[in-house]
Amino acid sequence: MKTKNPVTVIAVIFISIVVGITALGVSFQTPHDDSHDHDHNQETVVSQSAEEGEQQYTCSMHPSFRSTDPNDRCPICGMELVPVASSAAREDDLERIEFTGRSLALLDLQTHVVQRGPATRQLRLIGSLDFDERSLTAISAWTGGRIEHLHVNYTGAYVEAGDPLVELYSPELYVAQQELIQAYAQTQREAPAFLADSNQTTLRAARERLRLLGLSGSQIEAIIESGEASDRVTIHAPSEGLVVNRNVAQGDYVNTGDTVLELADQDRLWAVFELFERDLQYIEVGQELEFKLQSSNEQMQGVVESLGPRIDAERRTREVRVAVNAGEHSLTPGSFVRATVDIDVDDVMTIPASAPLLTGDRAVVYVRVAADSGEFEARNLDIGRRLGDSYEVLSGLEEGDLVVSRGAFRIDSELQLRGRPSMMAPQGGGAVGHDHGNGQGNGAMAEEEATHAEHEELTVPAGESLQLNDLPQHYFAMWDALQSDDLDAWQEAAEQFYEAADGISWPHNMHDVHDELSAGAGHAHHVGSLDQARELFHVHSQGMIALARADYLEVDAYLMFCPMAFDNQGAYWLQPDNRLLNPYFGGSMLRCGDRVETFEANQNSHGGH
C-alpha cells in the first residue's frame, strides 16, 4: 500500500509567502520531515506588530516564521525573507481573489490574451525500420530432394546475382535429365518426317520439364552437350541482396515448393509506424513524412506508400509504411524511428499549455479581471486537443480574456491557504501552515481522485504486459548525478536510461509516457550544462511519477516536491530513499523541498491488468 501525503499542502507552503498572505495573529509550529535536516526545536517568532499593522516578513519555505526586520534570514533554512502583504480579496467571494501591487510583483505572473485563429498540432509516431516487402525474394526448391551443400550457410550474407546458393540431390531430377538425353538422341537419327516432328515435340517437353524443376537454359544445354545426367542441381541467386532467412541446414530433405533461403535488397527499406485509431484522419497515402533515426538522430524523409489493411484489435493502431531509400545512409532494419507530423488546424481558440491546472477530468484557469487590476477569478474549462504548446478551448473562455499563463499554481495555493475553493480543493477548506507530508490534510480528496484517474489511464490492457526492468535504477542514477552536480555522471546514466526505455515493450495506451521518458534521446552527450540536464530530468520525472502512481514500479520510491524549482513554478521528482536531496538545485539548495508521497515496491506482476 501507499502512504499518501497531499500535494495541496506542499503548494500551500510555497505560495503562502510568494503571493503574500494575510498576516495571522497566531502562528503554527509545524512538524518537519527529517529530509530537511531542520532544527525541530526552533521557536517560531511572532511579533505583536501583526496586530498593529506593521509590515511583516517571512520565509518562503517556512511561513510560520515572522519578522519585522527585512534583513533577517530564516533561522531554519537560512533563506532571505519576503514581505507578507495583506489581500484585498472579499472573503465572501468564492471564485475571486485580489492582490496588492507588492504581492503582484512578488508573484511574477504572466498573462496571455485568449485568441482564435490557426494552430498547429504535432502528431508523434513511433516505429522501426524493416525491409521493403517488394524487395524480398524467396529461393524455393523446384523439386524434392536432399540438401547436399549450402554455399551460403548463414543469415546476413551478401550475395551477387548468379552466385551459387544451394546444391540439391534429387532422383526426380536425374530421371528427367536421362529423358532429355534420350529425346535429344532420337532427334539426331534419320526418321520419316512425321516421326522427326514427334521426336522434336518430345525433346521440347523434356526441356520444359527440366526448366520447371529449376534448371536454367544454359544448364539444360550443358546436359545435352555432355550427354551425362547428374542427380544434383545447383540453385543460383536470381538477384543480389542480403540473406535474411535460412530455413534449411545441410542434409535436410525438402519438398517441392519449400523456401530454402530468402533474399532482401538492403537499400530498399520501409519505416513502419504505428498510427493510433484517433489519428487516422491525419495520414494518407502519398503524404511526405520527416522522421529521425533514433540511434544517430539522423533526419530522413520518405513518402507514405501504404496503410495497413486493418486496425490491430488489441493495440488499436494501424501500420503506416513509409518508403526509404537507404542510399548513402547506414541503416539497419529493426532500428527505432520517430516521426513528428505538423497538422494545421484552422479557427480554433487556444491558451498556452502552462495556463490550465489539470487534475483528473478538471481543468481550471485563472483570469485577470482587467489588465490594470489585481483581481483574478477561477474558470472551469472544457479543453480539447493538445496543439503544440497550446490547448484547444471548447468552452469556459471568451476571446480577449487574460488568462494567467505563468503562476496559476501560486494563485491556486493562496486560495487553498485561505480555505476557499481551488483546483486541488474544489470544496474549500485548505489547511494553513507548513506540512512536510506527514499528515493527510484538507484537499487530499482531490489529489486522491486524480491519482485514481491516472491509475485507470495507465492500466495495462488485457493481453499486453509491462516490465520496467532496470529503468528505475537508471532514473535514480540520473537523480544522484544531479543532486551531486555531476554532469558527466548524468550523461552516462541518461544514455542507459534511454536504452532501457526503448527496450521496453510499451502497451499501446502508454504512448505519451514513453514520449516523456524518451525526451532528449540521442542527445545526452550534447547536453552541455546542468540546467539543460535538469530540464530533461523534469520531463523524465513526469513519466516515472505516472508509472509510480499506477503501481508499475517494483522498487520503493519517494515523491518529493521543490516549490522553488524553475523560477518558483515548482517541480516533482522520485528518489530511492526518504532523505531529501534536491536534483534541481544540487549543492546550492540541497535540502529545499518536501516529501509528498511514498510508493512501496509492487510485488505483483503486471503482465496484463
UniProtKB/TrEMBL annotation:
Q: Does the keyword Heme apply?
A: no
Write the protein's name.
Efflux RND transporter periplasmic adaptor subunit
An individual GO BP term: copper ion export
Give the organism the record lists. Answer: Aliidiomarina minuta
Q: Where do the segments described as Disordered lie? A: 30-53
Q: Where is the CusB-like beta-barrel domain?
A: 269-341
The UniProt record lists the CusB-like barrel-sandwich hybrid domain at 138-263
| Keywords of this entry | Membrane, Transmembrane, Transmembrane helix, Transport
- Amino acid composition bias (Polar residues), ranges on this chain: 43-53
GO molecular function annotation: transition metal ion binding; transmembrane transporter activity
Q: Which residues form the CzcB-like C-terminal circularly permuted SH3-like domain?
A: 350-410
**Domain of life where this protein originates:** Bacteria
Compositionally biased tracts (Basic and acidic residues):
31-42
User: Gene Ontology cellular component?
Assistant: membrane; outer membrane-bounded periplasmic space
Instruction: Report the transmembrane regions from the record.
Output: 7-28
